[in-house]
Amino acid sequence: MEGSESATGRWLGIAAMVLLLLVFIGPILWFILLAIRPADTYFAMPPVLSFTPNWESIRYTFFDPGNNAPQLGNSLIVAIGAVALNLPFSFPAAYALSRYKIRGRKHIMLWYLGLLMAPPVAFLIPYSVLASMAGVKGTYFSMILISQTLTIPFSVWLMRSFIDEVPIEIEEAARIDGAGTTTILLKFILPMVMPGLIVTSMFAFVFSWNNAAFPLVLANRSTTTLPVGTLQYFGTAGVTWGFIASAAVAAMIPPMLIFLVLDRYVVRGLTFGSVKG
């Protein structure tokens, strides 16, 4: 009797996990199929599960004429550039906020939190005007620079929690041996929080990659990123679901690959530190 109840509980657990998997994976699979299914089966009820793949949407978006192919490259340039610009500023800032008794430190962290919670659309008009006045509107640099509005506050919050976990005694011992702050930062703190640094870089990349608001007003035709290019298929003459699905699936691939390749750092990073106020 006890064995029967145990087997029933195990099967109920498996059924619950399958249901959860369908809830999270189902929409992604449906969208992938939307990119290759014939147009007359997009929203057929009941859903058509057996069909001959139609590659026209993928061909149109990425090969002929392939308008989204350069946008994919633009997104990579902006996201990688945002990470490269983010780390040299956020890491020292997180270290300072973690180790030094700075007046107003709590208010600085709350200000960072406020920047994270503010909708990006609130910054669009001022940043668009500033970029025009500075003569950088339509360049990669403008998008990389403005994306720091979101990535630096998040990175500082995350990195500070990792640095907090490093015992202060290690730094005190290094200072006794004559090490300066720069040496301590680069030779002791940085290697110890490397998993956290990689996790922070991954999230900064995803933040910049997915952001469509800033490129919407800062990019020009040659520097438009893929999320903006996907939105452009919502035309006034109708919605081209196949093109949208094809571009959106391509936009999902780089972040998914990054998290799959570096998943061990995500686990190590998230178990090494935790976000604190």
Could you explain the architecture of this structure?
A hairpin with a 2-residue loop joins strand 1 and strand 2. A two-stranded antiparallel ribbon has the order 1-2. The model has no long low-confidence stretch (mean pLDDT 86). The chain contains 13 helices and 2 strands, in the order H-H-H-H-H-H-H-H-H-H-H-E-E-H-H. By secondary structure, the chain is an all-alpha fold.
Keyword list:
277 residues, mainly alpha, two-stranded antiparallel sheet, 2 strands, globular
> If helices are DSSP runs of H or I spanning 4 or more residues, what is the number of helices?
13
Shape: globular
- DSSP strand tally: 2
The run of helices and strands is HHHHHHHHHHHEEHH
By helix and strand content, what is the structural category? mainly alpha
- Percentage beta strand: under 5%
Radius of gyration: 23 Å
Biggest pleated-sheet summary: 2 strands, antiparallel
Overall pLDDT score: 86
CA-CA gap between termini: 50 Å
Strand order of the largest sheet: 1-2
Low-confidence stretches: none
Helix content: over 70%
Layout of secondary structure:
Elements: H1 2-36, H2 56-62, H3 68-99, H4 105-117, H5 121-134, H6 140-164, H7 168-176, H8 181-192, H9 194-210, H10 213-218, H11 226-231, E1 234-235, E2 238-239, H12 241-261, H13 263-272
Antiparallel strand pairs: 1-2
Helix pairs in contact: 1-12, 2-12, 3-6, 3-9, 4-6, 6-9, 7-8, 9-12, 9-13
